[in-house]
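Posting here for the record, re: acetyl coenzyme *A.
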Amino acid sequence: MKRPVACIAGTGRGIPAHVMTNYDFAAIGIETSHEWIVERSGIHERHIAKSETACSLGSEAARQAMQRAGVDAGQIDVIVVSTATPDRLLPATAVDIQAELGASRAAAFDISAACSGWLYALTVAEGMMASGVGETFLVIAAEKMSAITDWTDRSTCVLFGDGAGAVVLKRSQGKHASQGILSAYMRSDGTLADLLYRPNGGATTPFSAEVLADRSHYVKMSGREVFKHAVRSMADACDRALDGAKMTGADIDLLIPHQANIRIIEATAKHASIPMDKVYVNVDRYGNTSSASIPIALDEVIESGRVHEGSRILMVAFGAGFTWASMVVRL
Ligand code: ACO
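Prediction output follows.
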């Protein structure tokens, strides 16, 4: 097990005010039912951004994380933002957040790795800290999935929600020397990209009247295929992170899986031999908030006292790309 370089000094979340329940789909003409959605995904409701943006949600999460870590914006060296739904395609949402926070001496950039993006971002930030780039990092995931969701496609629109989560990352030193990232694992398989993607609207096929008409700028997903790969990859990623930390499932105090679907979560926990009472689930209240799902969950479990200093947490994610990632952290 490696000596931790970076530890989590504070967490926060930014959640849109508006709640959309499964019953609200009838009002927008979607033929579905609360029972179908709960049975297939475990989702009861999700938060949908109305006036909020990826920047405003991410900034709110960051402010809370900075307050809990006892740092102010002027102390932030680097801001890394994971998002699949940047407010604008250029520049990065991270610089909007940098400006919003007044983090005047911070470098800022986005990472695009879909639902796995926040674990990728944490790993990148830790590596930058190890190489001496900075001492205080904001690692944020900010997602407005509702903006890229096809609200006429019942097979996808019932699954997603909006939100943001953030942590302040500081060096594991002094009385925090044993706290931090104990292992990290990341993988990808771009040969499967077309199973979950936005076909058009990028630089190859720029946004146009045709793209708008055929709705090909929205998320398309082969649900069953994604499900199969998600279960397999998240199970393997749990093994890799546990191996890296020289631990087994029995050593873990809490598993925080990406919150896409309760059935994927249950299968992942079973594979890692972690009982469901040691698995955090909030997909029922948020739906799939892409890369924001793990940091939102982390903030909730710390706030509620379910975990505390010294707790060992396994986090695991899977998303478009495909990408997948896992990490063991000691709080
Ligand atoms: N309400 C009612 N019926 C629906 C709905 C809906 N919202 N959506 C689809 N159906 C119907 C389909 O039309 C189909 O009907 P048919 O049999 O008459 O053709 C039937 O339900 C079954 O559809 P499937 O897509 O085969 O349903 P499945 O059991 O696979 O469940 C689901 C669909 C929930 C999307 C599942 O495949 C899944 O969870 N996949 C994982 C995808 C995921 O989580 N993606 C998130 C992004 S990636 C990530 O974050 C991991």
